Amino acid sequence: MDPLLTALIATLLVVLSAVCSGLNVALLSLHLPDVRRKAKLGDRHARRALPIRRHVHFYLSGILLANVAFASGTSVVLGEALSGPVAVLLSTILLVVFAEITPQAIAVSRALKAISFFSQPIKIATYAGYPLTKPLSLLLDKLVGTSKAVLHTRNELSLLIADHLKADSELDEDEVEIVQNAIQLSEKKIADIMTPLNRTFYLLENEGIDAKKLAEIQQRSFSRIPILNTSKSRIKRYIMMKDLIDIDVSERTVPLSELKAYKTKTVGSKTALDTMFRVFIAAKRHLIAIEKDGKVVGIVTIEDMIEEIIGHEIEDENDERTRGRLVV
Predict the structure, then answer these.
(1) Which of 122, 175, 263, 324 has its CA 20 to 30 A from that of 97?
(2) Left (φ > 0), alpha (ψ -120 to 50) or beta: where does 221 sit?
(3) 29 domain residue, yes or no
(4) CA 239, CA 167: separation in Å to the nearest integer?
(5) d(C-alpha 289, C-alpha 229), whole Å
(6) Final residue of a domain: which of 83, 112, 143?
(7) What is the pLDDT of residues 11-64, one digit of tens each?
(8) Residues 8 and 131 in one domain
């Protein structure tokens, strides 16, 4: 055979073997849930690659059979033109360097695009060898099984989100912090963020509101004031500042029983923060009493929950409080 023709055929076979080798690694490096998510988001490469990745053993068999055929053809072509040992050495070097190491290194970093670009040739090669690829895929399905979804722990998810701070991500620093805090909600208890009773402004049920008390409430900008029983063991209701605007305290003390009051709900101090959002939604209230050992020990507001998620205190013009106080 003409040396030039031999070189051209050998080069073509090495290139085809390189493509198959790269596609082999690219296909195995694709994570099915990731491809499925990207396809749902409209990624055109993911849409093309998803059918192939979903039936990975079937198409992997086709790629491997084609790769073996091209690699064997390279050895045969070189063997006809060169002596045995030289042909073996040269074919080994060509296949290892140009048909294995180099294409695999390239394909790993561009796996999705590679499978997408060569999706049609992969299907053609696989169905062309159907009598072999189908039994091989069934055997692999039996021996290896199908891919199972890999679920991350809460801490692993937090670390994955943190990686977005280091990379060129669509998420900014505030979004990363919010997501990380939200993931950790179930690990925290309501007692960690509540306002203890000894730091809470409250009224006793047998008290009233006079001019001095009203002025104090207005000055401190309290929006909700819990009402405790005389033994300070229960909070069953609270009053709102907006309902005190029109009361007349110039001539008498107004009993709390004459004021509009709102019922509140009581939860245990060990309630997880993620559960508390459902409690607020079900109760339709922004103030919840916290109980421990049958006695109220503090309060929590929806604002405290929001602050825990965003990782910062929400303060207004009148807010001079520490974290968790009752001012809105």
Answers:
(1) 122
(2) left
(3) yes
(4) 49
(5) 13
(6) 143
(7) 898 899 899 999 999 999 999 989 999 999 999 999 999 999 999 999 999 999
(8) yes
How many domains are contained in the chain?
A: 3
Whether residues 192 and 79 share a domain: the answer is no
Global pTM reads: 0.62
Same domain, 85 and 61: yes
Q: What is the largest CA-CA distance in the chain?
A: 119
Is-contact 304 324, C-beta < 8 A?
yes
CATH number, residue 211: 3.10.580.10
Full domain range(s) for residue 132? 3-143
228-260, pLDDT tens digit by residue? 998 989 998 999 988 888 888 888 888 888 889
Helix 302-310 to helix 173-183 angle (10° resolution) is 120
Beta strand residue intervals within the chain, DSSP E: 195-196, 203-204, 208-209, 224-228, 235-240, 254-255, 262-263, 265-268, 287-292, 295-301
